[in-house]
Specification:
Length: about 230
């Protein structure tokens, strides 16, 4: 091997070592990137103000004294996604009703023709202790009245009659502007804490961002109960 050839090999080897060193240092000083399908761990999430999520007059489907966990749902009775989540919420209530307080907040979407009216009907029914019965009736019959572009008051009055309500009082409460105001107060609170659609859940004050399924909500409740 000639002298020039040996010099060339030495130069090439030196360059390889230097480049390799730069690559190694780069890997050691660059933060690891998450693998495909994973996300970085999120930092602490601020909870919404407790006095806006649950007011003294908020409706509690399950009221557990000194409950460690509270699940708040902002809902729209005409919303198909709310109807889809309803069985999961009921299943969770059956399983966690002695440990978790479940709170119902109205959030009628303005573009839904009968959203405000259906919520007002439920609120009027609550004045006679029939909130839960009317809440269930709305979801169970949603396919019958949802997405209609005409007012469904006559049908909703029939629901009240079927539930055995005092119809004179029900009509009075339904027509009372204070009943609708109560519904809209919930919606205002929801907008203030960042609700943009329904259903929106808060678990111990933190907005639930997963899929509103039984499994997803159950995991969130279990996580809070384990703390």
């Amino acid at each position: 091997m000639t002298k020039n050839a040996r010099i060339s090999l030495i130069i090439i080897a030196t360059v390889v070592v230097v480049v390799g060193g730069f690559i190694l240092m780069s890997r050691l000083t660059t933060p690891a990137q998450p693998q495909a399908g994973t996300t970085r761990a999120a930092g602490p999430v601020a909870a919404a103000p407790a006095d806006l999520l649950v007011r003294p007059d908020s409706h509690k489907l399950n009221d557990v004294p000194n409950a460690k966990v509270t699940l708040v749902e902002f809902l729209d009775f005409e919303c198909e996604s709310c109807r889809a989540a309803y069985p999961s919420v009921e299943q969770l209530r059956a399983e966690y009703g002695d440990r978790v307080t479940f709170v119902l907040r109205y959030f009628p979407i303005p573009s839904h023709r009968n959203a405000e009216l259906s919520a007002t009907v439920v609120e009027a029914a609550s004045r006679q202790g029939k909130l839960e019965a009317m809440y269930k009736r709305m979801y169970e019959t949603q396919a019958e009245w949802g997405e209609k572009q005409v007012e469904q008051r006559e049908l909703f009055v029939r629901f009240a009659r079927d539930l055995g309500l005092d119809m004179a009082k029900f009509e009075t409460d339904l027509n009372d502007p204070a009943t609708l105001d109560r519904v809209l107060k919930d919606r205002k609170d929801g907008a203030t804490v960042g609700v943009q659609g329904t259903p929106t859940f808060f678990v111990n004050g933190v907005k639930f961002t997963g899929r509103a399924s039984y499994e997803g909500l159950k995991a969130a409740l279990d996580q809070e109960l384990a703390k």
